[in-house]
Amino acid sequence: MAKPAQGQIVPDHLIGNRTEFERLLTEHFACVSPKAVNQMPRALDRPSNRLWTEILAPSLLLDAGGHHHHHHSHHNQMDVVAACALPLHMRPIYLPIADTVRTKGRNHKLAIWASEAELAVVQGEISLFANVLCIGSQNEDGEWEPPSQRVVGAPYTIFTLEYDPPSAWDRDRRLRFLDTQLGWFRQSGSNDLDRPIRAVWDWAVRFSDFRGICADWSGN
């Protein structure tokens, strides 16, 4: 296992499940090239943090106008109670984060906790986020206002391009295509942009509000 770089955030779930990840690579990636296989442990050792530190974390708590609160600013329960009494368009905005796919009302509790915690601690425990919402209130039964009624514009937009291989492809062919995709992001020179994906980056960077590209692989 490589030593993390200074300031590198390695989420707890990557550390705790490291043996299982290594078993997965050994047992299921025989059709992937050695370069791609080596790429995966490196990503586990030194995962990219910029989506979290530069885009998501600064948006944990915003005022009604979408302006950033300073990290570590104080948010007590009375602030939240007062905010919930305001009309929806006047309430503070938050980034719903969670450590599970089932969070009641996509509520703001973890966002408030995270705004007062160290970034490394939060990324170590939280791996899911959703669209920005305004703070919600609860009724007498503890049910939250529906998230669909609290959606607001965020200071960023994430465009998702998803590709699923044709259902007729066998397992080996799917893995070979994964190999190709991993190759798009493999660095070949000293510059961080010395990768095949640079062609997409050079196109996107023409737009003044472009912030970056984040690649995510998932499946079963």
Q: How would the blueprint of this fold be written?
A:
Elements: H1 12-16, H2 18-28, H3 34-45, H4 50-56, E1 61-62, H5 77-84, E2 93-94, E3 97-98, H6 109-115, H7 119-125, E4 128-129, E5 133-134, H8 171-184, H9 198-204
Antiparallel strand pairs: 1-2, 2-5, 3-4
Which strands sit side by side, in order, in the main sheet?
A: 1-2-5
Strand content: under 5%
Count of DSSP helices? 9
| Helix content class | 25-40%
Mean pLDDT, to the nearest integer, reads 82
Mind describing the biggest β-sheet?
Answer: 3 strands, antiparallel
Calculate the terminal CA-CA distance, rounded to whole Å.
Answer: 25 Å
Assign an overall shape: globular
Secondary structure: number of strands: 5
Report on the structure:
The chain contains 9 helices and 5 strands. The protein has about 220 residues and is mainly alpha-helical. The protein has 2 domains: about 10-45 and about 160-205, no CATH class; about 55-150, no CATH class. The chain is globular. The two termini are about 25 Å apart. Mean pLDDT is about 80; it is low at about 70-80.
What descriptors fit this protein?
single chain; 220 residues; mainly alpha; three-stranded antiparallel sheet; 9 helices; 5% strand
